[in-house]
Amino acid sequence: MNTKIHIGLDVHKNSIVVAYALADGSPPQHHGKWGGTNPSAERGLLKLLKKLGVGKGEVRVCYEAGPTGFVLARRLLHLGYDCIVVAPSAVPKASGERVKTDRRDARKLARHLRSGDLEGINIPDGKDEAVRDVCRARTDASQALSTAKQQLSMFLLRVGRRYTGKSNWTHPHMNYLRAMTLPDEAHQIVLEEYIMAVDAGVERVRRLAAHMVSVLETWERKPHVDALVALRGFQTVAAMTVVSELGDLSRFKSPRQLMGYLGMVPSEATTGTRRRQGSITKTGNGHARWMLIECASHYRLEPKVSEALSARQQGQSRDVRELSWRAQNRLNYRFKRLCARGLNRNKVVVAVARELCAFVWELDALVRKGAKTKS
């Protein structure tokens, strides 16, 4: 590589602290502070390169992932800079390091970038990130709805009311709540407010789910979503969430790398002749891991192509349908074998979800192969 300068950015909402390390091995130098906007960063980079007498092709830039997102990285890449975003947990840290400042962080990033100790994470393009945000908004709305329902349930317990019907939050249950009259006027006000919160939450979830379906039609990853819903346990919301969170799976050379990225592999402490494995690492993308675990629980059921699954498989290739059936048989067999060993149910579901990752990886490869064949 012909890199002559390595730049570390400590990015905040209103400021960007800059440090650079030259390829000659000299100590990293603090350069200054820029404004927190993309045009300011662009102008500052150009001034710094002009001062040092290097061009865009001779510079590497990095900063830590954080709440400011990937807007700055995409802008720098578009301008022709070699820019990576690193996970904060992947930046080496000395055990005796007790002083932390923006200048120190920027110099540390520049030094580790020069030494090759930093590895960039995947930078999604703007459309993928927008779809991912819609999926996360729907998840947030669902969690808010669950909180509203729990608050209403706890309130009814406090006032001594208990529903004796078959299922909660069905039409009969909601009609029961709306017809309820409490003796105290203040309690009646609280009841009405909680019911309104639940109704608003239901409408919000429905509205965001409809937006997801609308966004899917113009998304370039729609073939991947359509193929994923051909697997048992996946419908449009779950499939869009997984695809938007994982992005392009071609960057994983094997299913094992995908499992490790999702934090579904056991933690390990091995020394000498002793080997000890613990719980899963839970690193990487927690949202995708949670959704895959939810979908994996469906494989406790006997293999079957239901009417709904058959409808979702319409238009899919024979290879995709065969993979779906193979996944059902393999994962159901795995589920029953682990349960027969007496393992905790949650551990069984996580183990099945780990193997489900391999089928998701293989399915993505099939879709990409089919796209190349058509082109």
Detail the topology: elements first, then pairings.
Blueprint lengths: L4 E7 L3 E8 L6 E7 L2 H15 L6 E6 L6 H8 L3 E5 L15 H14 L10 H33 L12 H9 L5 H32 L5 H7 L7 H11 L8 H7 L4 E6 L2 E7 L5 H11 L10 H6 L5 H23 L4 H30 L1
Parallel strand pairs: 1-4, 4-5
Antiparallel strand pairs: 1-2, 2-3, 6-7
* First-residue to last-residue Cα separation: 34 Å
Number of helices: 13
User: Taking all residues together, what is the mean pLDDT?
Assistant: 93
Helix-strand category: alpha/beta
β-strand number: 7
From the alpha-carbon coordinates, what is the Rg to the nearest angstrom? 26 Å
Report on this structure.
By secondary structure, this protein is α/β, with parallel strands linked by helices. The chain has three domains: 5-115, Nucleotidyltransferase, domain 5; 126-216; 222-374, no CATH class. 55% of the residues lie in helices and 12% in strands. The chain has 13 helices and seven strands. The chain has helices at 38-52, 71-78, 102-115, 126-158, 171-179, 185-216, 222-228, 236-246, 255-261, 286-296, 307-312, 318-340, 345-374; strands at 5-11, 15-22, 29-35, 59-64, 82-86, 266-271, 274-280. The strands form two sheets. It has a five-stranded mixed sheet. The protein has a two-stranded antiparallel sheet with strand order 6-7. Helix 2 (71-78) links the parallel strand 4 (59-64) and strand 5. Helix 7 (222-228) packs across helix 8 (236-246), helix 8 runs antiparallel to helix 10 and helix 10 crosses helix 13. The longest helix has 33 residues, at 126-158. The radius of gyration is 26 Å and the shape is globular.
